[in-house]
């Protein structure tokens, strides 16, 4: 046996330019992550300074939003890098955004417009994420279709 390992580059469906749908889905996911990050910083600052009333809930809410911002931001980075694992967190983020959008739509204030924007972003992202071109660009084969199955 030779001590050299032969590495052959695998040709996958992820070769070639990134589809615009994947780029748009990553941008929307990053935008949601940045919005959560900004909201978390705002709540944290209000909690620390005591401007929001209850200091403990402000700090807790701010830290929670900062941690929640990691999910769409990591998903956006994974989508841009064409990682198959990134579609799951991105889809979960959009599904979680829909009830938030619905609750904002029930408000009697300017929050209605935020609810409309969030709902449009979530539905658009979901459509982009489940698109066959996006699935192929991420190298997701589908249930029961592994690399071993394709070689047969």
Q: Please, could you describe this protein's structure?
A:
With 152 residues, the protein is mostly helical. The protein has helices at residues 20-49, 55-80, 87-105, 111-129, 132-137, 147-151. The longest helix has 30 residues, at 20-49. It is elongated, with a radius of gyration of 20 Å.
The helix/strand class is mainly alpha
> Which consecutive residue ranges, at least 5 long each, have pLDDT under 50?
6-13
Number of helices: 6
Strand content of the residues, in percent?
under 5%
Name the overall outline.
Answer: elongated
Number of strands: 0
What does the average pLDDT come to? 86
Helical percent range? 55-70%
Largest beta-sheet details: none
User: Taking Cα atoms only, what radius of gyration do you get, to the nearest Å?
Assistant: 20 Å
- First and last CA, distance: 27 Å
């Amino acid at each position: 046996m030779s001590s050299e390992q032969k590495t052959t580059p695998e040709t996958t469906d992820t070769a070639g330019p990134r589809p615009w749908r994947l780029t748009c889905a990553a941008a929307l996911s990053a935008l949601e992550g940045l919005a959560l990050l900004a909201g978390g910083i705002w709540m944290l600052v209000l909690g620390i300074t005591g401007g929001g009333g209850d200091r403990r809930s402000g700090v807790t809410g701010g830290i929670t939003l900062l941690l929640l911002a990691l999910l769409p931001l990591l998903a956006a980075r994974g989508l841009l890098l064409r990682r198959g694992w990134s579609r799951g967190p991105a889809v979960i983020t959009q599904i979680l955004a829909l009830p938030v959008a619905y609750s904002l739509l029930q408000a009697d204030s300017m929050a209605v417009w935020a609810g409309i924007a969030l709902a449009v972003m979530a539905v658009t992202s979901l459509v982009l994420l489940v698109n066959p071109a996006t699935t192929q660009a991420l190298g997701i084969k589908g249930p029961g279709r592994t690399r071993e199955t394709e070689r047969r």
